[in-house]
């Protein structure tokens, strides 16, 4: 109570100071009202009260007085007792009607609801979700692909497995479906490489915010755009945009698709007597994906496709896990408690001190790259994998054989070269725009 009185006195002193400044014409009355955070009309009332009662007129007259709208304690206890003993299974609206009709207690619905919730007799209503609108499908296949995994007991007996599925947003066509131990960087890269090799480059990839797709500094918060994962780096190298999902409703198509998978695939595997993952994956790849697409594939809004064939892309490097390393003085690289020895290469005399990249491939092998060059291949145990020896140019040709031309040298003799240079292009056998009919 003393704290309330001191706060009220402090506020009254502030109001008095502002009023005195306005009376001294240091500030205008509407500026005084703005400083106090009140309307001009309230400012006029406070000025009249100060002129009539002085400092005492500025004290809030509500302090220390109970509210006229306060419900008596006896009535509140009666309401809670009625609900607890007689109407315990009624909802709030029904109970509020009974209070008025049967017991003559005239209380607002809001007060009754808050009182029951505060006493723990009624659960608080969940927070309303924001209004969502249905997102239209992409008009062309290949514009956006969904990737997600569902953990389920797909076999009649045994453990749960993850089913990784990649489907098209435009048509819901399944491009990939395989059972794996768990959804991880390696299994996701394997799925994406399969789709890229089979169908080509696509525009964007929509996924959840799992750790192998995005880095999320705070759980449930936005992703960190400055740090990319291995999957994000592979998609960046291919120029494919990654779109994070911030709500399960955003992945509605893939979530509904998984309900269909869970309601059909276990029964299909049981009828066919399949109990291992290898048989199930062969069945998915060879039979069931085609049957699934025939039943549930939707027509695209426009004809055509957004898939583009890939050209000159090293998918072995793109779909691998990259590790930066520094070559030691003895041309070795430390990786996963193993020593990888780099053999002499024609690119450089020694690689000591060079920064290289160790590629952990999906086929359980390793390789070391120096820029675009591959300087070594190894098994996961660090055993070198022999490669074909590079071709060496011969310094001297054998007798009777034509010498290998040097770089920049003309293989024709000087006489032939001079004659060829004087001949028109059509006579040299060179196809020109005119000889090709202007093509």
Calculate the terminal CA-CA distance, rounded to whole Å: 97 Å
Number of helices: 12
User: What value does the Rg take, in angstroms?
Assistant: 39 Å
Mean of pLDDT: 82
Task: Name the shape in a single word.
Answer: extended
CATH homology superfamily name of the largest domain: Ribonuclease H-like superfamily/Ribonuclease H
Quick structural gist:
With 439 residues, this protein is α+β, with helices and mostly antiparallel strands.
Outline the structure in words.
- The chain has 439 residues and is of the alpha+beta class.
- It folds into 4 domains: 57 residues; 46 residues; 153 residues, Nucleotidyltransferase, domain 5 (2-Layer Sandwich); 64 residues, no CATH class.
- It is 35% helix and 15% strand.
- The strands form 3 sheets. Strands 3-2-1-4-5 form a 5-stranded mixed β-sheet, sandwiched between helices. A 4-stranded antiparallel β-sheet has the order 6-9-10-11. It has a two-stranded antiparallel sheet with strand order 7-8.
- The chain is extended and about 105 Å long.
- The N and C termini lie far apart (97 Å).
